Structure formats: structure tokens, C-alpha cells
Fold:
Amino acid sequence: MTQTDQRYLIQQNKLVDGEAKPPVFAKVMRSKEGVFEGVSFIKSKEKASVLTIDEANQAIAWANQKKPNAKEYVTKIICLGQ
Structure:
């Protein structure tokens, strides 16, 4: 059995907003060499980075460590197309 290469997006919702405001999506920043440098969150789902599950987990770990207000958000990995 082969493992399907799924692609994912990272979605965040602010805890206090609930469903009132649309979510934001992760845009991964990389160096010219392709090395991961960080994450920013944008409103456009179409411009968000499409990631493997390992890349998505790395981006979430970085955001939780480096973003001071990370605990104000619910962060989810969603399958592309959701």
C-alpha cells in the first residue's frame, strides 16, 4: 500500500472572534535556497502556501514559538480543497 502525498493549508481563527470573522492562512517564507525562515498569516486562501504534513507541522511549531500572540488563535491543518 502506498501513502498518498496529501497537500495541506494552515488555517487560524482568533478565539475571541469565533465564527464572526473569516480565518487567516499561513504563507511560508523561504530563503533563495529554499530553507524555511518563518510564517506570516494572510487573508487570501489562494495565496497561502500549500504544504506537506511535515512542512505544516514545522510551520505551526515555528509560529507557536515565535509569535507572541499565538495562544489567542486556534490553528488547524486542513486538507487542500476543504
The two ends are 25 Å apart (CA to CA). The mean pLDDT is 87. Residues 10-79 form one domain.
